[in-house]
Amino acid sequence: MNPRKLLLNSFNAAIAAADPLRIVPPYLPKPPGTPGGRTLVVGAGKAAAAMALAVENHWPETATLNGIVITRYGHSMLTNRITVIEAGHPFPDRQGEQAAQKILAEVKKLGVDDLLLCLLSGGGSSLLSLPIANVPLNDLKAVTRELLRSGAVIQEINTVRKHLSAIQGGRLAASCHAPILALVISDVTGDDPTHVASGPCAPDPTTYQEALTILERYQINAPATVMETLLLGKQGKLAETPKPGDAVFDKVENHVIARAHDSVVAAGEFFRNQGITVAILGDAVTGEARDVAKVYAALVREIRHDEHPWKPPVVLISGGETTVTVSGSGRGGRNTEFLLSLAIELDGVRNVHALACDTDGIDGSENNAGAMIAPDSLCRAGKLGINAAASLANNDSYTFFNQLGDLVVTGPTRTNVNDYRAILIL
Questions:
Q1: Listing from the earlier edge strand, what are the strands of the sheet with 82-87?
Q2: Does residue 83 sit within a domain?
Q3: Is 64:30 a contact under the CB 8 Å cutoff?
């Protein structure tokens, strides 16, 4: 029983459960029945290109189909009828802004006999960046950077972004006269479409006041244009985002077609087929990555020493999205930070192996999906002169695992249902 191979194969099972080429086709609608009615496909996210290809592969050749989707650099796929544009993530760039402008312009041309098919997945908030008037793109980028470093959860970050956007927070739906079907691959805890790609086709229950409160809570030094815009909105001088119950959503359907739960269950089934007990600890785990690791380490020690509440071999599986409050100058993402903290807490407890990866293939802003630990991880680090505690304090988990050769590098998976963690106790 090779622990490394088991963990990697379980991660592959989790990704396969969220493969757009498999999960999109059953949800596709029929083309518009009215003569002359056309279908426009738009979308944004790390899964956008694969979702677009799935639409093309199953759309009638005789039915009108065109559109634009935006995905992260390096995540494109070859399509014929839908244009795929690559743009910046996690920070918005001019390429994404121009593509979002084109999407909004095309959506506004649709009539009541047409259909808007919107393909949304994690990463769309950055990729579909069209700042509201008077907020330059660089200012949106600046506040996004500070929020991502602050430890704010994605729902809070998106509350701010929606109120600085001309297209998110339900504003794309409000600009469309045609019926809308949004297919959503969820990368957020709770799987609410309003938080995936900042909900361009979903009602937004948040307010300008909440956005201001979030900036204050995390002591974000936002550019003047951002603060002025949010204050004007709070004062009622700018229109709020469309809210639940607004008539603009009478013609909109949002369907979540993949979520972390599906992938966690698929990974669990893989382990059961290997004769290993499966304990699913939840698919919506949040909190500071290093602190979540401490809780898990305490549970692992109880299982290892007392065979309670499960007897080994057992695997602890969880999904969700932890956060990292960046105080150091190192490199890393939430999954490698989780693992480094877990390794320190376990301190070589025997027969315990773990993997933590982002299902999109990218942990933070680096080139790895995540990493793995083994009972000898700290020992090997010590022989290389690497101080694990110092690495954690400097948020330098990427460098730590890179030097050990324990990074997991998959390349773009072209899907995204959040993080996958598995702790294998043999």
A1: 82-87, 65-72, 39-44, 115-121, 180-185, 252-258
A2: yes
A3: no
Q: Tell how far CA 91 is from the center of its chain.
A: 14
d(CA 119, CA 367): 25
Cα separation, 414 vs 359, in Å, equals 9
Cα–Cα distance, 133 to 229 (Å, whole number) = 9
1 assigned to some structural domain: no
Instruction: Calculate mean pLDDT across residues 347-361.
Output: 97
Residue with tokens 């320190």: 344
Query: Furthest-apart CA pair in the chain: how many Å?
Result: 72
Q: Residue 33: which pLDDT band, with cuts at 50, 70 and 90?
A: confident
Amino acid at 112: V
Question: Half-sphere exposure (CA, 13 Å, Cβ side) for 266?
Answer: 19
302: domain range?
260-425
Cβ neighbourhood burial of 194 (10 Å; 0-12, 13-18, 19+): buried
**Of the residues 258, 291, 312, which one is the last residue of a structural domain?**
258
- pTM for this prediction: 0.94
Task: Verify that 214 and 173 share a domain, yes or no.
Answer: yes
Which helix H or strand E contains 203, and what residues bound it? none
SS3 (DSSP) at 64: coil
pLDDT at residue number 321: 92
